[in-house]
Amino acid sequence: MKEKASKLSFGAAMQELEGILSRVEGEEIDIDELAEELKRAAELLEVCRAKIRRAEVEVSQIVQTLEEPEAQAAEPRSPELEAPELQGAEPGLPVESEAEASAAVGKTASLFEHDD
Question: What is the rounded distance in angstroms from the CA atom of residue 52 to the CA atom of residue 10?
């Protein structure tokens, strides 16, 4: 049984997404499993995007703190400043992973695009 997508770390979600992408591109997925795999990919994609947004907020806050005078840096931050969809997301995304994540997310998102 697969772990709930929201419980996965960013790295684990990305690894699973890459596996799905590889199976789809390699035509290794049975047509009967395709819809389920794409549904799982969509869940993982949303988890990765939320974690990237969370990292962006954290990096912005860190940069802002570094730019503030020392007196202002000591002031506590209000939790209302964070976007509601980002609260509870996993912190700690390495900055160098963001470009890699965005590329994989873009590849996976292209699976959902249709040429009508």
Answer: 9
Q: How many domains does the chain have?
A: 1
CB 54 within 8 A of CB 86: yes
Query: What is d(CA 74, CA 1) in angstroms, rounded to the nearest whole number?
Result: 46
Amino acid at 8: L
pLDDT at 11: 93
Q: Tens digits of per-residue pLDDT, 54-78?
A: 999 999 999 988 887 654 545 566 5
- Which has the closest alpha carbon to 41: 89, 102, 109? 109
In a domain, 41, yes or no: yes
Domain that residue 100 falls in: 5-109
**What are the residues whose beta carbons fall under 8 Å from the beta carbon of 12, sequence distance 6 or more?**
3
Query: For 3-12, 38-47, 49-58, which range has the lowest pLDDT when averaged over its residues?
Result: 3-12
Within a domain: 57:
yes
Residue 46 lies in a domain: yes
Residue 114 inside a domain? The answer is no
